[in-house]
Write a structure and sequence with these properties.
Elements: E1 14-18, E2 21-27, E3 37-43, E4 52-53, E5 58-65, E6 67-72, E7 75-80, E8 84-87, E9 94-97, E10 104-111, H1 115-122, E11 124-125, H2 139-152, E12 155-156
Antiparallel strand pairs: 1-2, 1-11, 2-3, 3-10, 4-12, 5-8, 5-10, 6-7, 6-9
């Protein structure tokens, strides 16, 4: 007995406003026995998450459109369409930012699944092409985000941490 093959069209999935971007959870851990999740990230100019680390998640990014600047503890690199980034298990601090003047689109895979749950918790439902401002960093939001980090084994750093 084998599992059925899944075919997911370009409009299916949950769309969320996250870190100034528009993230589509193409396939979640609930659908893969938590083995992996795949998220399509549309990132506007100046969009992207703050520096963070997740030691128990192996994450990859494939750049579908545009370019983003990836920052790590080893420096920064602009990664363009067709480029690939692998963040292995272990907790390397990383972030990315769209430093260009046009939209970038990334395909992110996380193994095991779980990071998509953070996106679901912090994101707001949006439609394709809809971008919401990043929520204000109130004390209440800081505590909410710290609790999420603890729950999901992630650590978030100040925006200038990798400068």
């Amino acid at each position: 007995m084998h599992a059925d093959i899944k075919i997911i069209d370009q409009v299916s999935g949950k769309r969320l406003a996250v870190a100034g971007g528009n993230y589509r959870i193409i396939i979640s851990g609930e659908e893969t026995e938590n083995r992996f999740a795949v998220i399509e990230m549309t990132v506007p100019p100046n969009g992207g998450p703050p520096p963070h680390a997740h030691p128990n998640t192996h994450e990859t990014f494939y750049i579908l459109e545009g370019e983003v600047e990836f920052k790590t503890e080893n420096g920064k690199t602009v990664v363009s369409k067709g480029g690939f980034v692998e963040i292995p298990f272990g907790g390397a601090v990383h972030c990315f930012k769209n430093t260009s003047g046009s939209f970038a689109k990334l395909l992110c895979t996380v193994m095991p699944a779980g990071l998509e749950k953070i996106f679901e918790a912090i994101g707001q439902p949006v439609s394709e092409g809809e971008f919401l401002p990043v929520p204000e960093m109130t004390e209440e939001r800081k505590i909410f985000l710290q609790n999420l980090d603890e729950k999901f084994g992630q650590k978030t750093f100040p925006p200038d941490y990798l400068e």
